[in-house]
Fold:
Amino acid sequence: MSGKYNVLPVPRDFVASNKGTKQQILWVGCSDSLILETETLGVHPEEIFVHRNLGNVLSNGDLSSRSAIEWSLEMLKVEHIVVCGHYDCAMIREKAGNQWVRDISELHAIDERLLRKEGMTDERMIEHRLEEMFVLAEVKWLEEQPNVKKAIKEDGLKIHSFVYDKDTNQCVRLIEEIGGPGK
Structure:
């Protein structure tokens, strides 16, 4: 992710509740994020289909993630997909040799060099920025998938980038700036 972005709070009514009449949101989150998706968005449990995995990774070809996306788009006809990471994610710090973590580590090694080049030295802030950049990279990958492109064009699907902060019990959304680098 080379563009600039803003970090904004997620209002409780970000997605208007349909009072539980149908599942309208696919929420992709990390297995250990501790977030309560329904409370964050102020929707009924019947309105949200939750898919969790280690590090909210979508781009590694995982069959479970691909199936959740396909089911949500083609059967549930969701109107929103939320990819939600969380600060202090162990996957961001992990340097293990398995493929799941290696892909994240390679991405972050590149991004961390860029952040340090920009003069960022605070380790906690670097970790936060890395999580934000990873969520944005996963969303970018998702937007490039043929079935997602089709749903955006034909059904008005909206995709959102969120990061949860357990210290403040708040969720923020990441909004890319139009006209930034790479645009």
